[in-house]
């Protein structure tokens, strides 16, 4: 099965370049992936190609990205191999997954079209829970708040981000450290931050308490959300 992922220019997730699976490796793929690797395992699992296209849709998520001073300029300057939609050989793929409903899905295409909404707080997410937008076949609800089984098309379907432990172990075969990784949002919650997801100094103290409770070193990255 051939799979393609398609995202817009002003989407910080995924690789910042169009890149074909056959032209990369597990580790090399990360060279074009400056942000968090949420979709990296899913790419490895599906052996998917990636395409970055010019901005097609101004969603709540896009507006949030562009509110960060300088981030739009950073994305424009450092994203490579941006491809016009008409240049993507869609008919060569069995499954196309886009990030946000950014594709004008043709009525007679044999390709299965699905999409994630990048952020669950985006209004597009709630709208898509009722039914996929446009001519899409599937809305993939990563919050798992849609039906769990496929009854018919089109449909919203609970679908988590795929994991591929084998790919992770193959890409990073070195000896592992006995430690716990804590997502910064876990620590801000434990640190009683008033605004969800915004780093505060109490997060450091929360990490220390977590270490004492688990009796293991806690690794985390703090304050990355203060600036691009």
**Helix-and-strand structural type:** alpha/beta
**How many H/I helical runs?**
7
Could you name the ranges where pLDDT drops below 50 across 5 or more consecutive residues? none
- The fraction of residues in strands falls at 5-15%
Strand order across the biggest sheet? Answer: 2-1-3-4-5-6
Q: What is the averaged pLDDT score?
A: 92
**Global Rg:** 19 Å
- Large-scale geometry: globular
User: Which series of helices and strands comes N to C?
Assistant: EHEHHEEHEEHEHHE
| Total number of strands | 8
Q: How would you explain this protein's 3D organization?
A:
The protein is α/β, with parallel strands linked by helices and 228 residues long. It has helices at residues 40-46, 60-67, 71-78, 123-130, 165-171, 184-190, 202-214, and strands at residues 3-8, 49-53, 95-99, 112-116, 138-141, 155-158, 180-181, 218-219. The strands form two sheets. It has a six-stranded parallel sheet with strand order 2-1-3-4-5-6, covered by helices on one side. Strands 7-8 form a two-stranded parallel ribbon. α1 (40-46) links the parallel β1 and β2 (49-53). α6 packs across α7. The radius of gyration is 19 Å and the shape is globular. The model has no long low-confidence stretch (mean pLDDT 92).
